[in-house]
């Protein structure tokens, strides 16, 4: 009996050894800590620089930043930029990130025009601001998520941090990064009432302060690539001027249901905007109509990051007025899957 028990124990021990060897063979380079390059496949759409969908266009670039023991600037293993071309993402330049069995926290950001500041981990925020008009073209966005923004306007995005990423964990499951908007958006849907006798051609929109600096462009604003926090510096009054390409003839559908929308990206405003601080001036049929923007009921009257504040504006035979204010979130954007090949 004792001999049989010893034989059974030996058999079990042998099976355990075999299983252990099998595990080593299955994990391969991950167990041996051989570094493997990080690869990505983000999914967002760029329309004139503003993100409004789920797939990047050809030529777009995103940057990835990693933190952890093996992921430092000293080791040249914490930053890489990727470019989308020919239906594939590849490292754009000599910088690469190689995952080891040491855990990394993965971040990502857009745009990649400027490499992040290594001291405070920020990138510059570019606003298309000024009294000089920039052109904005109407798009088919009566319904759906398309955004009519000016050429040259640049969205700023950052990824929700994804921790505990290693070469082993990525063998079976990639890292899905969710991209978030760091700026705020203001949109206008303008329509004409039945008693307006003119053509109703909208040719220009100017967004500015009545007085003060509630609508601010800051001084050299920046975005933190890890948190998306905007640091604007000293508040400075902003003016956004948009010329409508070829003009846009206003619809006269009920409550502006058939009217197209025009959008402007601004720095977030964390406090209530009030009802007498910011104004919009619309040039219609050559005449200027100015209306003060009231604060939305959502978000305590503020204009937070990632929100699109849609003002529906009615032009009647006697005046221009705001009929409704709607606050919506930009399209939820999944940054993609980071795969180790």
Automatic annotation (TrEMBL):
Signal peptide feature range: 1-21
Origin superkingdom: Bacteria
Record-linked InterPro entries: Mfa-like_1, Mfa-like_1_N
Keywords per UniProt: Signal
Keyword Nucleotide-binding in annotation: no
Pfam families per the UniProt record, alphabetical: Mfa_like_1
Name of the protein in question: Fimbrillin family protein
